[in-house]
Amino acid sequence: MPSNPVPWPNSAKCAAAITFDTDADSILHLQYPDDAVRRVATQSFLRFGPKVGIPRILETYRKFGIKQTFCVPGWCAERYSETVEAIVADGHEVAHHGYLHESPNKRSRDEEHEWLVRGIEAIEKVTGRRPRGWRAPLYDFSEHSLDLLLQEGFEYDSSLMGDELPYVIRSKQGGEVIELPTEWAMDDAVQYLFSLDLGLTMTIQPPARAIEVFVSELEAACAQGGLWVTVWHPFITGRRARWHQVELLIESMLERGDIWFAPMEEIAAHVRKCIDDGSYTPRVEELPTYEGRIPELPTDAVGEGI
Asked: 83: which residues sit within 8 A by CB, 6+ positions away?
């Protein structure tokens, strides 16, 4: 049990964010830059997200009167601008999720910064505002990511998995942002994602069974005054049987009356307010944790599989 749970608004037991990584077919073009055009079946699989999944999701959110967060690569904001405009029109947050779903860990600091700025500009052009939050594509937060987020004025991140409560990540160069952690158990890709082209072949779970994982995490979060940040994808969970289970879950959560639904930017702002007024003392993690290769390794050591 945490000794210092966040005092959530209206004495809620838990803060909940059902976040969507709205990748669409950006991931296909990045993985197959020369022949993505030939992979029409996978294109259709991924384009289902902005074309069918998100309209279905928005309809549910309107029905229940909740506002949430969509993490969108900048290229997707440009390519599917009407979808992103519909998200904004309904009052939801658009957070940054790379430009073309590129991995920061595979790029230099300058390259990572270039992609970050390109994504900011694309999102701002479509939505009319700079994104306040970021989730690294593939959760690939690099040793440079925090300093770049600070340089560009971000207020929170939701890429890391180092706690179950909101915490602070602080740069050794100065500055900090709020971390709203999640983890793989709360990502729908683990339950459902099967694509030969993408190289991901999970065993597809029945929706009623898959949702049990998320419910278990929710029950634990509510019991401990915690945070429940789930990560879904419109091309995966925007499909009818899976989304039906999420609808039932949202309905049951609202019936409880002790869960605070909010976009991540509102959760981060509330956490910052509680830190400033002394009602919440978060754990602080200084980054980067390591300054390079650890000295305990032999000089001739090479990478090994787990």
From this structure: 22, 50, 51, 54, 55
Report the distance separating Cα 12 and Cα 277, nearest Å: 19
Six-digit token pair at 220? 């634990």
Q: Give yes or no for a contact between 112 and 142, defined as CB atoms under 8 angstroms apart.
A: yes
Domain assignment of residue 134, given as a range: 9-287
Among residues 242, 243, 213, 240, the alpha carbon closest in space to that of 228 is found at 213
Q: Is residue 39 part of a domain?
A: yes
Within-domain flag for 306: no
- Crossing angle of helices 109-127 and 81-89, rounded to 10°: 60
Structure tokens at 44: 């259709």
pLDDT of residue 306: 54
Q: Residue 72 CA to chain centroid, in angstroms?
A: 9
Per the CB < 8 A criterion, the answer to whether 156 and 145 are in contact is no
Distance (Å, rounded) from C-alpha 260 to C-alpha 12? Answer: 6
> Is-contact 23 225, C-beta < 8 A?
no
Intervals of the chain under pLDDT 50: none
Q: 39: how many CB neighbours lie within 10 A of its CB? A: 20
Tally of domains within the chain? 1
3 located within any domain: no
Q: Where do the H-state alpha helices sit in 65-198?
A: 74-79, 81-89, 109-127, 145-151, 189-192
Alpha-carbon Rg for the chain, nearest whole angstrom, is 19
Question: Per DSSP, what are the bridge partners of residue 179?
Answer: 157, 167
The DSSP bridge pattern shows strands 14-21 and 69-72 to be parallel
How far apart (Å, rounded) are the C-alpha atoms in residues 20 and 55?
A: 13
Which of the 8 DSSP states describes residue 50? I
Contact of 46 with 201, CB cutoff 8 Å: no
Q: Give the model's pLDDT for residue 4.
A: 83
Burial 161-170 (b: 16+ CB within 10 A, else e): eebbbbbbbb
Contacts of 293-302 with CB under 8 Å at 24 or more apart are none
Task: Output the domain CATH number for residue 113.
Answer: 3.20.20.370
